């Protein structure tokens, strides 16, 4: 049996006032992602995402203050 695996890129722009609601939406949208990335210049945003809502949302999570151009393969 072959597992269902596909590549998907998603970007979601949200209002800063709705950050926690956005994390909840991402957490409840799918079971588990292989890789995810969080871009932020705010360290508190990283901590909120990992310590609360998104701690089990993906197998590999990358935290970025800016785009690094890294490719996971």
TrEMBL record:
GO terms for cellular component: mitochondrial matrix. Keywords: NAD, Oxidoreductase. This is Uncharacterized protein. GO terms for biological process: L-proline catabolic process to L-glutamate. It comes from the Eukaryota. It comes from Suillus plorans. GO terms for molecular function: L-glutamate gamma-semialdehyde dehydrogenase activity.
């Amino acid at each position: 049996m072959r597992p269902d695996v596909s590549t998907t890129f998603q970007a979601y722009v949200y209002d800063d006032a709705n950050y926690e609601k956005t994390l909840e939406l991402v957490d409840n949208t799918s079971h588990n992602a292989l890789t995810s990335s969080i871009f932020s210049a705010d360290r508190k945003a990283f901590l909120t995402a990992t310590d609360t809502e998104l701690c089990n949302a993906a197998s590999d999570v990358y935290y970025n203050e800016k785009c690094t151009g890294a490719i996971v393969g």
